[in-house]
Design goal:
The chain is mainly alpha-helical. The protein is built from 44 helices and 10 strands. Helix content is about 60%, strand content about 5%. Helix 14 links the parallel strand 2 and strand 3.
Length: about 1000
C-alpha cells in the first residue's frame, strides 16, 4: 500500500471517511499479515466504520487474529466477511469495549459464542446463563465464563437487539447465575459447612430490581438457618464462612480480572452487624430498629441463590414491613432527608460530570419513584415493583404521577442509563462520571447512534435530559396533588382525595384536608392568577415540605395570594424572579414572626425578588427616610405610625434575610459563619430601633415645641441595645439625659424632658397593626423609684457618690443612640472612669460582682426551667459569657483600649489579643454566646414571641432545629450539642470569672 511521497493513499481517504481518527495507524494494522485475506474487503471497512470507535475495533480484531492459531484465525476472518450477524456483533463489541477486547485477546476462541443467532439466544434468562457457567469449577474459570456470557450480552446490546430495560434485566440474571455458581464453588470447597446450614442469598438494589449496570456492586443480604440437629451457633459460623467465600470469589482480582464487588452492607447494622443472620433475627431488627431507608432498600429484595424456600420465606416476611414504613413515627422527617439530592460529598470539579448523584441524575429519578412507592404502595399493590421503569409506569397508570411527566422521566432515565452502560462497558469499570476527554466523548456519542457531530450531540442530549429530571424529580410529588382538586378531562386518571391526603401527610402536612382546600382555592378557575399559581404550586409545595411547618407555609401563601393576587407585579414577581418564589416559601414556612410581619403589609413581598432586597439598609439611609416622613406628617401620631411602618418593613427584611441565610436556597448554600448571622441581626435590629426612637423623639418634639426643645436631649442605649446585640424580641433598654439650653430654667427643662419621654413611650406603644417598641428605663439611677430623666450634672453627682458596682458594670454597654450628639458624647466621657476604673477593679468590687452573679443564678432562674437549656441564665449561657467578658473589661479596660467597646464579641476578641484569655477558651465562650443568641432569635422567629428556653412543642422544636442547621429528626442532636457547647463554656467561666485572681 505504498504511495508517492506527499500523497495520501485511497485507503487512507476511505478510512477517514469511515470514521477512523488515526487513518495512518489503521493502514499499518491492515497491512499486517494477520489480516492479509480481508484487508481490502469493503464489507469489513464499512462494518468497522459503523462501530462506536473504528480504531479501537480494528486494534481489537488484530489482537484476536494474532492470538489465535492459523486455522482459527482463518475461520474467524472467513466468518467475519461472510456472516453479517457475527460481523456486527463482534466488531460492535470491539468498538465499544476495550476490556472485552482484552478478554478476546486472552481467549481468542470465545468469538465463536457470537456466531449463534437463534431465537433462544436473543433473550436468555437465568437458566441459559447457568448453562453458560456450568463448567466453571474454580474462581478463575468462573471469571472467564462470566466474561464469555457478558460478551454475548454486550453484543446484543450494542447491536440494538435488546433495549435498555432488557439489557439491565439480563445483567441481573447473569449476576444471579454467577452468585449461584460462586456459592456452588464455596460449598464444594467446604462440604462440612454446607452440610450444617441452609443459606439463602437475597439480592438488593439494582440486582434485586433486575435493572443492573455492567459494572456495579451487587448488593446482597445473607439469611441462614441451622439444619435439623445442628447447633445454631455452629450453623451461623458455617454459613458466614460460605458467604464470605462467595464474596471473595466474585470480588477478588486475578489475572482474569474481577467479576464485581459483592456488597453486604445493606444488612441490619451495616458493616457492624453479623454477615449472616437467621430469619427471626432479621425480623426482630426490622421490627424494632430499622430506619426508613432500610425499608426503602428492602423494596427491591429478591431471593436469587442458595436455599430457595428460605429465600422466599425471607422476602415474604419482610415485604409487609416495607409497605408499613409510611406509618412509622419518623417517616416524614426521613422522607424529607431522602428527598434532598445527595451532592454534598461529590468533589466540586466532578459535580457537572456526575451521571448518578449530580443534580438531574439517575438517583433523583430512582429516589422519587421509590418514595412514591413507599407512600402509596401500602394501599395499592400494583406499585410494588423492584424495577424503576415498571414502577414509574404503574405510578402513571394509577394517577400518582402525571402521564406526561412520567413519559418524560422514562425517556430521560433510559437515556441516562444508556450513557451509564456505555461508559462502564468501555473498560468494565465502576464509574458514573461522564468523561471529559474528546475521544472518549466521541466514542460514547457514536455508541448511542450520534454520528454527525457526536460530542456536541451527546452534550446537548445529556443536558436536555438532566434538565428534565431536575425539573420533574420534585414536581412529580406535587403536580398530582393539584390534579386531585382540579377538573380533568374525561378518561384522565387522577390521585384520589384519599391518596392525595396520604401523600400530603407523608410530606409533613399535619392537616391534609385543610391543605387540599388551600390547593383547590389557589389553583381553581381560569384566571391568569390561577394559571400562574398552578405552575408555581408544585415547586412551592416541595419547599414547604422541606420546612418544619408545611401547613403554615401553604396557609401563608394563600393569605398573601388573596391579598395581592390581583396585583400585576406580584404575579410577575413570582413567575419571573427565580429566587422570589423560593425565598417566599422559606419565609412563610419557617415560623410565625416573618409571616406575621408580612401579612400586616403584604406588599413587602417585593423585597424577596430584589437582588439587593435582603441587604439591611444603613442607619443613615433609614434615618433620612424616617425623619423625612416625620417632617411630612400632620401630627405626632400619624408621624410615628409611618415610623413604625418602616420598622415593621425593615424587621421583615431582617427576618427574611436571616431565615434565608440560615436555611440556604437551591442556588445559595446556608451561611456557615453563624457569628456573622448573629452580628448582622443584632446590628440591623439595633439600628432599626435606634432610628425608630429618633423618629418618635422628633415627632414628640415637633408636636409641642416645633424644631427646638427647651433642653438638649439624648437617649442612651443600654444592655443589648447599647451593645448592638438586640434580638428580635428584645426591649429597648435606655437612659434619658438632658442639658438645659442657655436661658432655660432647670425646672422648665426637666418638665420638657419628662414630657418628651412620656410622649415617646406613648407613641411607640399605641395599638396599631405594627409591632410596638417597648422602652425600658429601669437601669437608671435608683431604678424604678428614681427620676425618669436626669441632667448630665445630676448623673455625675449620683455616680460619683452613690454608684454601686453593678451600675458601673451596666454602663459598660452604654452608648448614645438618638438625640443630641454632644450631650451623648458628654455622657460617655462622664461614665468612662466608672466603667473602666483607673488601676482596675479592687478585690472588694470583684467579690461583689461574683456575689451578685451567684445570687442571680440562684434567684432569677425560672422555677422548673432546665439550667442546661436556659439561654440567658443557664449554664454557659449569655449571662455567663457576658459577665466574664465584662469583668475583664472593668479590670483591664483602663490599659487595653480594645476592651473599651459595648459589644461582647469585640471585647472578647480584644481580651484574647491582649493575652488576657487563651485563644481556645475565647473560642469556647464565643461559640456558646453565638449559639445561645441564635437560639433566642430562633424562638422569636418560630413562635412570634420572645423566650429563653427551647420550646416543648415538637413542631416548634423542629423549626428551631431547622433554623440552627439540623436535619429533620435530629432535635436530640441539637439539644445534646447545645448542652455540650455550653458545658464547655461554663468550665471556662468557672476558671476565668469565679476562679480568676
Amino acid at each position: 500500500m505504498t504511495t508517492a511521497p506527499g500523497r495520501r493513499s485511497s485507503t487512507f481517504t476511505r478510512l477517514l471517511r469511515h470514521g477512523f481518527t488515526d487513518p495512518s495507524a489503521a493502514e499499518q494494522l491492515l497491512d499486517l499479515d494477520a489480516l492479509a485475506s480481508v484487508r481490502s474487503d469493503p464489507v469489513l471497512l464499512e462494518a468497522l466504520g459503523a462501530t462506536a470507535d473504528p480504531d479501537l475495533a480494528l486494534r481489537g480484531l488484530v489482537r484476536i487474529a494474532e492470538a489465535g492459531e492459523e486455522g482459527d484465525r482463518q475461520m474467524l476472518l472467513d466468518t467475519l466477511v461472510t456472516a453479517k450477524p457475527l460481523r456486527d456483533r463482534l466488531l460492535g463489541v470491539l468498538g465499544a469495549s476495550e476490556a472485552l477486547g482484552d478478554h478476546l485477546a486472552r481467549h481468542p476462541r470465545d468469538w465463536q459464542t457470537l456466531v449463534t443467532y437463534e431465537a433462544a439466544d436473543l433473550h436468555p434468562g437465568v437458566a441459559e446463563f447457568e448453562h453458560g457457567l456450568a463448567d466453571a469449577t474454580d474462581p478463575d474459570a468462573l471469571r472467564v465464563a462470566y466474561r464469555r456470557c457478558l460478551l454475548t450480552l454486550a453484543a446484543r446490546d450494542v447491536c440494538g437487539t435488546t433495549g435498555l430495560a432488557q439489557t439491565a434485566a439480563e445483567l441481573a440474571d447473569l449476576a444471579t447465575a454467577t452468585l449461584r455458581a460462586a456459592l456452588a464453588i464455596a460449598r464444594t470447597a467446604a462440604p462440612e459447612d454446607a452440610a450444617q446450614c441452609r443459606l439463602a442469598v437475597v439480592a438488593m438494589g439494582k440486582c434485586g430490581g433486575r435493572e443492573l449496570n455492567y459494572v456495579s456492586d451487587v448488593d446482597v443480604i445473607f439469611v441462614a438457618e441451622a439444619r435439623e440437629g445442628v447447633d445454631e451457633t455452629k450453623a451461623m459460623q458455617a454459613a458466614t464462612r460460605l458467604a464470605a467465600h462467595l464474596m471473595r470469589i466474585c470480588s477478588e482480582t486475578t489475572v482474569e480480572g474481577t467479576i464485581w464487588e459483592v456488597d453486604a452492607n445493606l444488612r441490619p447494622e451495616g458493616r457492624n452487624g453479623p454477615l449472616v443472620r437467621t430469619l427471626s433475627s432479621h425480623l426482630a431488627y426490622y421490627q424494632r430498629w430499622a430506619k426508613t431507608w432500610e425499608f426503602q432498600a428492602l423494596l427491591k429484595a429478591r431471593a436469587v441463590a442458595g436455599d430457595p424456600e428460605l429465600g422466599a420465606e425471607y422476602v415474604d416476611a419482610v415485604s409487609p414491613l416495607v409497605w408499613q414504613a409510611a406509618d412509622r413515627e419518623n417517616f416524614v422527617p426521613d422522607v424529607q432527608k431522602m428527598r434532598r439530592r445527595v451532592v454534598d460529598n461529590i468533589p466540586a470539579d466532578r459535580v457537572d460530570r456526575e451521571l448518578k448523584l449530580g443534580p438531574g441524575g439517575l438517583r433523583d429519578v430512582e429516589f422519587a419513584v421509590q418514595l412514591l412507592q413507599l407512600v402509596h404502595g401500602r394501599s395499592d399493590a400494583s406499585l410494588r415493583s423492584g424495577s424503576t421503569l415498571e414502577a414509574l409506569r404503574a405510578l402513571a397508570e394509577g394517577g400518582y404521577v402525571g402521564r406526561a411527566d412520567a413519559a418524560q422521566l422514562d425517556e430521560a432515565y433510559r437515556f441516562l442509563r444508556a450513557m451509564e452502560h456505555r461508559i462502564q462497558l468501555h473498560r468494565l469499570r465502576r464509574t458514573h462520571l461522564v468523561p471529559d476527554d474528546g475521544a472518549d466523548l466521541r466514542r460514547l456519542g457514536r455508541s448511542l447512534g450520534m454520528r454527525t457531530d457526536p460530542v456536541a450531540e451527546l452534550n446537548k442530549a445529556w443536558k436536555r435530559h438532566a434538565s428534565v429530571v431536575r425539573r420533574l424529580h420534585e414536581k412529580i410529588f406535587y403536580r398530582p396533588l393539584l390534579d386531585a382538586v382540579a377538573q380533568l378531562a374525561p378518561g384522565e386518571s387522577r390521585l384520589s382525595a384519599k391518596a392525595a391526603a396520604i401523600r400530603l401527610e407523608a410530606l409533613g402536612y399535619a392537616d391534609p384536608a385543610a391543605a387540599l382546600r388551600h390547593l383547590e382555592a389557589l389553583s381553581s378557575g381560569v384566571t391568569r392568577k390561577a394559571a400562574i399559581q398552578r405552575t408555581l404550586l408544585p415547586v412551592l409545595l416541595g419547599w414547604f415540605a422541606d420546612s418544619a411547618d408545611p401547613d403554615a407555609g401553604l396557609l401563608g401563601f394563600r393569605k398573601v395570594s388573596d391579598a395581592l393576587g390581583k396585583t400585576p407585579w406580584y404575579l410577575r414577581l413570582l413567575r419571573d424572579e427565580g429566587a422570589a418564589a423560593e425565598n417566599l416559601a422559606r419565609v412563610l414556612s419557617a415560623g410565625r414572626l416573618a409571616p406575621d410581619l408580612l401579612m400586616r403589609a403584604p406588599e413587602a413581598v417585593a423585597i424577596l425578588g430584589d437582588p439587593e432586597g435582603l441587604t439591611p439598609r444603613t442607619r443613615t439611609h433609614l434615618e433620612q427616610e424616617v425623619l423625612a416622613a416625620v417632617g411630612r406628617a400632620g401630627d405626632a401620631e400619624s408621624a410615628v405610625a409611618v415610623v413604625r411602618g418602616v420598622r415593621r418593613r425593615e424587621l421583615f427584611r431582617t427576618t427574611a434575610a436571616d431565615l434565608i441565610g440560615s436555611y440556604g436556597t437551591e442556588d445559595s448554600p446556608a451561611e456557615q459563619d453563624h457569628g456573622a448571622l448573629v452580628d448582622r441581626v443584632g446590628s440591623a435590629v439595633t439600628d432599626l430601633n435606634a432610628v425608630t426612637v429618633a423618629g418618635a423623639l422628633r415627632a414628640a418634639v415637633r408636636e409641642r415645641w416645633g424644631d427646638t426643645l427647651p433642653t438638649r436631649f439624648a437617649v442612651i442605649g443600654m444592655g443589648r441595645f447599647g451593645g448592638h446585640e438586640l434580638s428580635y424580641g428584645s426591649d429597648a433598654d435606655v437612659l434619658f439625659v438632658h442639658q438645659p439650653r442657655e436661658g432655660v430654667s432647670d425646672e422648665e427643662a426637666a418638665k420638657a424632658a419628662n414630657a418628651v419621654v412620656s410622649e415617646m413611650r406613648r407613641l411607640l406603644q399605641l395599638p396599631t397593626a405594627d409591632p410596638p417598641l417597648l422602652i425600658d428605663a429601669d437601669l437608671r439611677p435608683e431604678g424604678r423609684t428614681g427620676p425618669m430623666v436626669r441632667t448630665l450634672k445630676s448623673y455625675d453627682a449620683y455616680y460619683r457618690r452613690w454608684a454601686l458596682v453593678w451600675e458601673s458594670q451596666a454602663l459598660l454597654r452604654a452608648q448614645p443612640v438618638a438625640g443630641d450628639e454632644e450631650v451623648g458624647r458628654a455622657f460617655v466621657e462622664l461614665i468612662d472612669p466608672l466603667r473602666y476604673p483607673a488601676e482596675g477593679l479592687g478585690e472588694d468590687a470583684v467579690r461583689e460582682i461574683r456575689r451578685l452573679k451567684a445570687r442571680m443564678e440562684s434567684e432569677r432562674m425560672p422555677r422548673g426551667a432546665d439550667p442546661t437549656l436556659h439561654t440567658k441564665l443557664g449554664r454557659g449561657g449569655l449571662s455567663d459569657v457576658e459577665w466574664t467578658v465584662q469583668l475583664m473589661q472593668m479590670r483591664h479596660g483602663w490599659t487595653e483600649p480594645g476592651l473599651r467597646t459595648t459589644r461582647t464579641r469585640e471585647a472578647l476578641a480584644a481580651a484574647c489579643a491582649a493575652e488576657l484569655i487563651p485563644a481556645e477558651e475565647a473560642q469556647t465562650l464565643d461559640e456558646a454566646w453565638v449559639l445561645a443568641s441564635r437560639v433566642r432569635n430562633a424562638l422569636m422567629l418560630v413562635r412570634g414571641r420572645p423566650g429563653d428556653t427551647f420550646p416543648s412543642d415538637s413542631r416548634e422544636l423542629a423549626a428551631v432545629g431547622r433554623y440552627l442547621g439540623y436535619e429533620p429528626g435530629h432535635v436530640g442532636d441539637m439539644l445534646d450539642d447545645y448542652r455540650r457547647i455550653t458545658r464547655r463554656a461554663r468550665a471556662v467561666v468557672e476558671e476565668r470569672f469565679y476562679g480568676a485572681a
